[in-house]
């Protein structure tokens, strides 16, 4: 029987994906302490989650009014730690949980990213994953020594080269290259350690790479592109794909289309996991879950939405009055997460700021599922069986409570229904995802389909 994949959506920041979550009475207030991450890691591992993964952004949200005062005052994702470092702490506290972190292809050198994740993969015994993103706003560009963000499609063209360099370096050491024969003095066979010598349009890197392959070959690749260009990138490179589908019918359609796009690259669609983001709010009874939801639903403020819309769309919403419609030119200038803009414009052609807040739901809980374990499991089963996804990214309304509740009330129900495994299948993330160790150079066979 097909089994669902579960991913914990983690933030190495002062709040969850819900910016106001830090005000929740049960939220821990030490999200910059190692114990906080050790605890979450253990909760996810007890729930047999495949993966805990950290998102990233290289700036605090300060596009709104071009100022960070509101961000800091309201705690709108203003603390952001380095995800890989935090992940190392989580790796030391767990044994089987997969460990994913987001790193941008826009500003780091691919050699550096390849080395960081290959090292993490070795240090975690083959449990690492890398969420490949392109950076999307000017704040990130300015923190990283540039003036403005790279144009939308161009940043994916660059990211394609980035992947060729990273995967190329990960191929450098053949699996049996290391001999370590103290008697003969041969450490490794030179003919089995290769130089990349990559020369692209945007990137160059020589090699040879300095980190041997891990027990799972190399880290698992995660991607979450939502635009046409982004999805093409994900279909070519991604092994786990994060999505937010607006409803079940759209999900069924997009899921099938995306799997076809994966096949178009000559890849096995069954080997690519599509995980849909949901925010469960659960308890022992429906009434208790509804009480919990009432408490969470009153946390967000309007400023959260304005700040996060400005940040994500790379557009200062403080320049517009609440009920003033955006012009076509202004809408065109929004260069960040264009999917948010397109979703709003699909509902209202010339939206106002107020429309953006209402239709996008930014700053509020995304896809809440409120109910007891049975009710939440019903909804997950419905999407999984449709099929509209292969698993779920579980977003927390507050931490650690939301994960503790999910593991306590929903996981046993999913296991009882045979939808979710009762234990880890193996030691590495690939074993737990049912993926083979990639052979050296296998990715080179992926070619863009002829249009
Ligand atoms: C669950 C999930 C997690 C994401 N995490 C990040 C992240 O950490 N950093 C980031 O810049 N974008 C993140 N994204 C955004 C995507 O990488 C992507 O940019 C977005 O979906 C827009 O698609 P596009 O780039 O094709 O326009 C995430 C998306 C989803 C659904």
What does this structure look like?
It is a single chain. Helix 4 (110-123) links the parallel strand 3 (98-104) and strand 4 (128-133). The strands form three sheets. Strands 1-2-3-4-9-10-11-13 form an eight-stranded parallel β-barrel, surrounded by six helices. A two-stranded antiparallel sheet has the order 5-6. It has helices spanning 34-46, 69-74, 83-93, 110-123, 138-143, 152-170, 228-237, 248-264, 286-297, 302-313, 328-333, 338-347, 353-360, 373-385, 401-416, 429-433, and strands spanning 5-10, 51-54, 98-104, 128-133, 178-181, 186-188, 198-199, 204-205, 220-223, 240-243, 273-283, 368-372, 391-395. Helices cover 39% and strands 14% of the residues. With 451 residues, it is of the alpha/beta class. Bound molecules: flavin mononucleotide. Residues 9, 55-57, 102, 131, 133-134, 136, 224-227, 230, 242, 244, 277, 337-339, 393 line the site of flavin mononucleotide.
